[in-house]
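DM from R.C. (forwarded with permission)

"hey, sorry to bug you on a friday — could you get me a structure for this? deadline for the figure draft is monday and I only need the backbone to look sensible"
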Amino acid sequence: MTQLAQATPADVDHTAEIARLNDAARAGSLPTSRTVFTRALADILAGDAEDPGVRQVSLMLGQTALRRLINETPIEPGNDPHGERDFGAVEFQGHKIFWKVDVYANDGTFSWGSETPWDAQQSFRVVTIMLASDW
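My reply, with the result:
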């Protein structure tokens, strides 16, 4: 009698789904994700104006421009060895910028990596955008 092997969830390749969710998180369109900028990068984006309102506007405009650049710049194959599109690098205003996507269990604590990163409801993504020197 011959038994047919059945694919278990661990045997299924979820790379394409993970990459799609990472792309959506990076674009800011995934409800179960957040984007954070490191303090050093935020300070550069805000500029050095004395008026706090001007600094806030500069920060928001810089974040928008940087996010657009990150989403329009192809990911180097060397930065994406697993095809999940979870890390990249760009140049912005003379600074080398890294971005990365971390996937946590969507349990409200963000203490553990997700065991199901391909499931948008059971995982939560944090996109961190930083100066290369922050790494």
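R.C.: lifesaver. The helical segments are 15-27, 39-46, 52-72.
me: no worries. The radius of gyration is 18 Å.
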